[in-house]
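Batch manifest, entry 17 of 40.
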Amino acid sequence: MKSRITLWTVVALMAVSVFAGMEIKHLISGDLVIDQSKKFNEVLSKVENNYIKEVDVKKLTEAAVEGLLDKLDPHSVYIPAKAFEQVAEEFRGKFEGIGIRFTIRNDSIFVVEIIGGGPSARVGLQSNDRIVRINDSSAVGYSDDQVRQRLRGPKGTRVKVGIYRPGIKELLDFEITRDEIALNSVEIATMVSDNVGYVNVSKFSETTDDEMKRALKQLKDQGMKRLILDLRGNPGGLLEQAFEMADLFLDAGPKDHPHKIVYTKARRPEFDEAYFAKTGEAYENLPLIILLGNYSASASEIVAGAIQDWDRGLIVGETSFGKGLVQRQWRLTDGSALRLTIARYYTPTGRLIQRDYEGKEKDAYQREAFERQEKEGENIEHKAESDSSRPVFHTHAGRVVYGGGGITPDYVVKNAVLASQTQTILRRGLFDLFVSGYLDGKGLSIRTEFAKNWKLFRTSFFVTEPMIADFHAFLQKSEVKIDQKEFEKDLTFIKTRLKATFARSFWGNDGWYPTMLQVDAQYQKAMGLFPEAEKIAELH
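Output type: C-alpha cells
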C-alpha cells in the first residue's frame, strides 16, 4: 500500500509539474509581451510630450510595426488601412466601378483599356479617350486615388463623365451605371496553333480556379490537345488556389502512394496542412509545359514544383524567385492588416523552395533572384545545378532536382537582353505615349481600318518605315539620346512592341499577348518541346 501511494504521488506530482510548467511558460511569455508593450508606450509617450516638434503618433506607431516585422523575414508585412482595400480587391478578384484601366499623363486621365463586357464598354467608351469631367466637375490634375474614389462605387449607382475624343471637337457626355468588375487572374486563354492552347495566369486570387476551368474548357472546345501554361511574372497568392490548379493536371495516384501536391510545416501544429490530388479532371493526360521566370513566386512555384516532382510536364524558362513561406493575414482594429509568416511549404518530394534570407538586407535578398548566372540549354537531369550546395531530391521517375532556391527549369531559356536604350524607353512608358499620340493624329485612320477586325490587323498591319521615323523623332523630342546601333539591334523588338501596343488599344490582352509572343524566345522554345513533355509524362 505504501509503495502504491508513493507511485501515484510521484505520477501526480509529475503531472502537476508538467501542467504548472506549461502555465508558467505561458505566464512568463505573456509577462514579457506586457513588459515590452509598456516600454514602447513609455517611449512613445515621452516622444509625443517632449520632442522638439509635434509628431504624428500614428506614423511613428506604423514605423515601429514595420521595424518589428523587418526583424523577422522578408515576407512578413504590415498593410496600412489605406492600402488594405486595394490589396483585398486583388485577392477577391473583383471590385465595383465602371470597368476601365487608366493612366495619368500630363494631368489628364487617359483610358488605356476598356474591360470587355463592363459598364464603360456597354456605353461606348474607347481606349485613348480622355476623361476631363466627372459628375460635372473638372477632373484635370486628379491623382490616381482621386480618380478611383470618384469612378468606383456600389453596383447600380451612376456616374457622369465628360470625354475628349481625338478627332471630335465637342466633349462627349456619358452616364455610366457602375457594376461588379472582375479582376481576372487569367490574363488570356487562346489557341496559338491548331492544337496548342496558351493560358497566362498573373496571380492566384479567390477566382483563379473558376477562371482556369472556364479557360481550359473554352480551349478544349476549340481543339486544344496540348497546353502552355505561362506563370512568368506571377508573384503568387492563395495557396489553396495553387493546389486546385495543380490538381487539374494530376490524378490521385495509387492508394499506397497518393499524389501529394504540397504540404506545410509550422511551429504551431494547427498550421500544418497537406494537399492531395483527386482523380476526375479532363486534363490529367494533357501534354503540359509551364513557363517560369525570376518573378514567378510562391503559389506559382507550388504548381511548377508539383508538376516537376511528379514528372507530369516540362518546366521552361528561368529559375523562379524562391519563396517557400506561407503567410496568414490578420485584420487589425484600425482597418490595417498584418500578414505574418506562419509556415514553410514543401513540394511533393520534400523540397523547400525558400531561398536563404538570414543575415541579408531585404533589397539584397530581392535582387539576388534576378542576378543568377544560369547556363542556357537542356537540363532534364538538372546537371546545371550539380555543383550546387543545395539539397538533392528525386522526382517520381528518379530525376535529380534541387531544393533551397526556387524551381530550376528542365530547359533553361533566356529572352534576349535588350539594349540599355530600349530598356529606358520601356521604363519611361514611351511606347504607350507614342501610340496614344499617333492615334490622335496620323493614326486616326488605323482605328477606322483595323479596330473591328483582329485577323486583318494581325496579318495586314505593319509598323512602316515612316512610322519608325516618327517614333525616332518622338524619342528625340522626349530627350532620349539615340544610339543608332542599339536602335537597329532591337529594331525587331521595337516594331513588335509598337504593333502590340496598337493591338492592346483595340483588343486589350487578346491583342497584346499573341503579338508579343512572336518575339518571346522562351515561348518559341516551348512550342517545339511537346514531344519531350509527352516523353517525361509517359503520355505516348
